[in-house]
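Reminder to self: tokens first, then the designed residues, so the page reads top to bottom the way the pipeline ran.
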């Protein structure tokens, strides 16, 4: 039986708050401990939720999900993509979808894709029309007219036949439909779903075909007439045109050359056991993770994830797990993802493209006119992807009369005695934003409410706030908590004598942020390291010897600490013979003085020398003060001898998840490290230290050579670039395969330590 939106939300939030009380956190399979959960209805029978918690192994987890039952509602499952030869964010796909006459309630990213061209791996179908065959078709999620989802193999055969003017009948196989030219001997077919031109290069034969209907469908045929035969490439594709293309030297070339304007052509797609005949929509999947309520796959890599699942009653579940952001969310393994989908009630579930591609957009009723991004992509911003899966309905004229009342925040964590201002919004019968009523009245049996201001009571527990405006009513919830921790603005600090640094504090309930007032924090410190003001300005002491101690950040009786090292006044900076005139001399000198880097002998650093994979691990180990280096378990690489100077470093790096091998039991320690490899290792090092690389405000990263970055490295490259730890080279190029130098490594390590602990040279 379908619950009403209000009833569902009440159950959802009460349950969420019930488990986040002083009795402890709820444990969910695959996810870990849930510290807080919230949500709100987004359509009749559709709901958006967030889960924040902690995995004992990986740390903070932040998941987002949408549950929807399209049965009996206006909602449809839709697959949408922009031009195949290109990509766009899911938010932009929503805009295109709404331009075509639909309103989108929620959407997620879909298939994995070729990052250089935006082409999805597998077949895409939209509104019964095949958008692309994909470059490696395997399996798809097929959606029928009843919005039922099934996994099916792709068994489609594309062919052409007809009559050559003056030469009789012909026939042949088409290898790819709307896929970039990547096979010298293949025959390619294009329409406007691909792009405005074929984007081909080199010596080719391309045949322009006119047709009344250029849409390719399963078990369908397009009838057309040859318009033009072109000995060339990158042919324009008109709105009522298709183009056949092949290399001039291929076996197909002679047949295309024999065509003449006016030749009749039939272009067909035949189903060969795929189960796609009834598919209204289809999108490729990575692989199945839950079948019949049981986990069917596993994987140990921890990453952001995107998944879609189906419950026993047909309810659709969209799921996103953020990751690669230690202060926000770390991600899940595939096995954990499967178990969490089962925990959410899915009997079938499939893994889609994850990593930096993971995106969920949701329309917040009463607030958003269109669906907006809700999760936090690992690359710092939404990535352009190949396609997405959407919950949408056809636009129609409805009354602007308010049919639903919404109060935000709908669910909030609070400290005793603190206040929160509530805001009322309204939506029509389709949950579209309309003007909110002026006569909203708030009340509560559990707390104090004055106007729209809610004041938490003194005791922990759940408070319910009622909002009413005429016949409209809704509820908001507050969880009053006392089991909090103080989190200083910095965990570790190194200063010279007399230097100053501002210290601030924030509050956490588990891993969840708790709003607080800055003026309620007080500060103290150990006397040997310096003094600190009432506002949190710390001044390091002067001493001829190094000093260490703590700064204490107080919130009532709860205390957070900052480990502080004050260097000696008489420390003499290290100067190498070959760095005096080098651009990196300051970075190298400071790190060498701190004992974080060393020379190569004879008081030389060799700043422009190429850096090996093993040497960069040694850099990172020294930046960690060589902690736990000797105690690391053997990694088992065949090319890492026990007698090698880097043996312990490699073991340590592998154990901490900083680096992997390069093949079958090999590490390749003496290979020069590339810039993209360095970016990956640095990001993994930050995860090991539970440090979220801070992204610089206003810094836009868009390298001209981004297509040269390996797919496995692109998220890491953009993360370190967004943190200004690695910059572009020359004309805004990253040069991902370029070899890194010892000077570059010193600058990167310097910037990393400075962003994490603070360095003042």
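Designed residues (761 positions):
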């Amino acid at each position: 039986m379908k619950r009403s939106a209000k009833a569902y939300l009440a159950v959802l939030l009460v349950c969420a708050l019930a488990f986040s009380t002083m009795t402890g956190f709820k444990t969910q399979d695959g996810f870990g401990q849930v510290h807080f959960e919230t949500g709100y209805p987004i359509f009749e029978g559709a709901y958006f939720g967030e889960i924040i918690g902690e995995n004992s192994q990986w740390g903070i987890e932040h998941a987002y999900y949408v549950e929807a039952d399209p049965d009996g509602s206006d909602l449809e499952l839709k697959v949408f993509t922009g031009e195949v030869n290109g990509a766009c964010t899911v938010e932009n796909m929503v805009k295109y979808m709404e331009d075509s006459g639909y309103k989108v309630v929620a959407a997620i990213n879909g298939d994995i894709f070729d990052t250089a061209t935006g082409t999805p791996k597998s077949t895409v179908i939209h509104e019964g029309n095949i958008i692309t065959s994909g470059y490696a078709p395997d399996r798809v999620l097929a959606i029928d007219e009843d919005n039922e989802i099934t996994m099916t193999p792709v068994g489609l055969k594309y062919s052409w036949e007809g009559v050559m003017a003056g030469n009789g009948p012909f026939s042949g196989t088409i290898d790819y439909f709307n896929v970039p030219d990547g096979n010298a001997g293949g025959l390619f077919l294009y329409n406007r779903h691909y792009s405005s031109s074929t984007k081909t290069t080199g010596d080719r034969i391309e045949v322009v075909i006119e047709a009344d209907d250029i849409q390719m469908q399963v078990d369908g045929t397009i009838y057309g007439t040859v318009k033009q035969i072109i000995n060339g490439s990158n042919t324009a594709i008109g709105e009522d045109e298709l183009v056949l293309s092949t290399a001039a030297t291929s076996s197909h070339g002679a047949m295309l050359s024999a065509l003449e304007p006016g030749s009749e052509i039939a272009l067909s797609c035949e189903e060969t056991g795929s189960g796609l005949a009834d598919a209204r929509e289809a999108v490729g999947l990575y692989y199945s993770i839950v079948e019949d309520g049981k986990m069917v796959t596993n994987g140990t890599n921890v990453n952001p994830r995107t998944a879609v699942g189906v419950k026993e009653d047909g309810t659709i579940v969209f799921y996103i797990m953020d990751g690669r952001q230690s202060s926000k969310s770390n991600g899940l393994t595939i096995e954990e993802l499967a178990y969490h989908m089962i925990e959410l009630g899915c009997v079938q579930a499939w893994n889609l493209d994850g990593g930096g591609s993971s995106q969920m957009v949701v329309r917040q009723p009463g607030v958003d006119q269109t669906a907006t991004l809700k999760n936090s992509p690992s690359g710092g911003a939404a990535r352009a992807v190949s396609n997405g899966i959407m919950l949408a309905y056809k636009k129609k004229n409805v009354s602007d009369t308010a049919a639903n009342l919404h109060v935000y925040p709908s669910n909030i964590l609070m400290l005793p005695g603190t206040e929160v201002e509530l805001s009322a919004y309204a939506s029509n019968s389709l949950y579209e934003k309309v003007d909110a009523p002026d006569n909203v009245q708030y009340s509560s049996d559990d707390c104090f409410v004055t106007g729209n201001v809610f004041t938490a009571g003194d005791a922990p527990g759940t408070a319910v706030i009622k909002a009413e405006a005429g016949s409209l009513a809704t509820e908001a919830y507050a969880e009053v908590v006392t089991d909090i921790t103080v989190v200083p603005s910095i965990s570790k600090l190194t200063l010279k004598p007399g230097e100053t640094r501002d210290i601030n504090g924030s509050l956490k309930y588990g891993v969840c942020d708790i709003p607080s007032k800055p003026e309620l924090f007080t500060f103290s410190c150990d006397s040997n390291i310096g003094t600190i003001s009432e506002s949190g300005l710390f001044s390091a002491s002067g001493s001829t010897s190094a000093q260490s101690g703590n700064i204490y950040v107080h919130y009532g009786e709860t205390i957070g600490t900052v480990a502080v090292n004050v260097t000696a006044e008489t420390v003499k900076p290290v100067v190498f013979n070959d760095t005096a005139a080098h651009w990196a001399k300051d970075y190298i000198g400071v790190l060498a003085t701190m004992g974080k880097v060393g020379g190569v002998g004879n008081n030389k650093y060799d700043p422009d020398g190429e850096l090996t994979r093993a040497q960069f691990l040694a850099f990172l180990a020294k930046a960690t003060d060589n902690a736990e280096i000797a105690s690391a378990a053997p990694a088992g690489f065949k090319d890492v001898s026990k007698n090698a100077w880097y043996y312990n470093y490699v073991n340590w790096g592998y154990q901490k998840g900083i680096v992997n091998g390069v093949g079958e039991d090999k590490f390749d320690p003496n290979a020069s490290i590339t810039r993209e490899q360095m970016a990956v290792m640095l990001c993994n090092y930050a995860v090991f230290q539970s440090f979220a690389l801070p992204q610089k405000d206003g810094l836009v990263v868009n390298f001209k050579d981004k297509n040269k970055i390996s797919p496995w490295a692109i998220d890491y490259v953009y993360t370190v670039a967004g943190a200004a730890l690695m910059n572009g080279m020359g004309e805004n190029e990253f040069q991902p395969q370029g070899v890194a130098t010892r000077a570059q490594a010193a600058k990167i390590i310097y910037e990393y330590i400075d962003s994490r602990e603070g360095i003042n040279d």
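The CA atoms of residues 124 and 283 lie 5 Å apart.
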